[in-house]
Specification:
homodimer, 117 residues, 5 helices, 2 strands
Chain lengths: 117, 117
């Protein structure tokens, strides 16, 4: 149960973190390798404190982590949290597709029954 | 460009809508078929106005739509918005996996080069 609650909370903060275009772009940027806050700020017309705020949200959600090097503390991706969000969406998609498969089957059965008439 | 901006906004509101456990449960419930607000409220210890608020967020994000029947206005799933969120995560996952494939290849090349020494 604790695990389930943890997952729920983790999904909350993951989806919350993804609900912002700057944060999504930062994640996409980090996919190609770790980067400092200064490097991450470059493509955005945003102040360093502005970018830092977004990075803190991503870090709190467990989507990224920061290195211990005191001067730069480069950011890097932690894949697990996003994998949970992915699993939730896949589970939802699977149920949704199963529903349509059932509907297809029902329509086929209906057609076959009609053909026998 | 307009399309891209629309997608960005749509992703914002989709992820925002998914960042709440009640809203995720409502969506999972609607996967098995349409339901009225009263039916959706049943499993939750929440007031009808409370549930209605969540339903409005889902509706605004385009994740569900409501029927026109004046009395009940049943809720049903609209799959497109969630498909966009799914695509974003798949794209991210693909880039992430490609990065590890490149790393694997690099390590294999390194091993082969060492073998030749």
């Amino acid at each position: 149960m604790v695990k389930l609650e943890q997952t729920e909370e983790s999904l909350n903060s993951t989806f919350q973190a993804l609900a912002d275009p700057t944060r999504r772009k930062i994640l996409m940027q980090l996919v190609s390798g770790e980067a400092t806050v200064l490097q991450l700020a470059e493509p955005f017309q945003m102040s360093l404190p502005g970018i830092s705020k977004h990075i803190k949200v991503l870090e709190k959600a467990g989507l990224i982590e920061r290195g211990k090097s005191a001067q730069y503390r480069p950011c890097r991706i932690k894949a697990e949290a996003l994998e949970e969000a992915n699993l939730w969406l896949q589970q939802y998609k699977k149920l949704w597709e199963e529903r349509f498969d059932r509907l297809d089957q029902y329509l086929m059965d209906l057609q076959q029954t009609k053909g026998k008439d």
